[in-house]
Design goal:
62 residues; mainly alpha; 50% helix; 2 helices
Length: 62
């Protein structure tokens, strides 16, 4: 029975290191995901708010 490899970057029998997919490398960094999520939210809602402010019609003065 084969046991899972505890070190995924260990060289394979041919001597070349095994490549870890980009998605797996990103999901293994939870703080990076947290920062990226906060930045995307901040940029999206700030952009949306600025668009709403610039697209408002001027209020009629009494």
């Amino acid at each position: 029975m084969d046991t899972p490899d505890p070190n995924p970057t260990r060289p394979d029998p041919e001597g070349e290191p095994e490549e870890i997919p980009l998605g797996q490398r990103l999901f293994e960094r939870p703080f990076l995901l947290l920062i990226v999520g906060i930045l995307i939210m901040a940029v999206f809602y700030t952009g949306w708010g600025l668009y709403e402010i610039t697209s408002l019609t001027p209020a009629p003065l009494p």
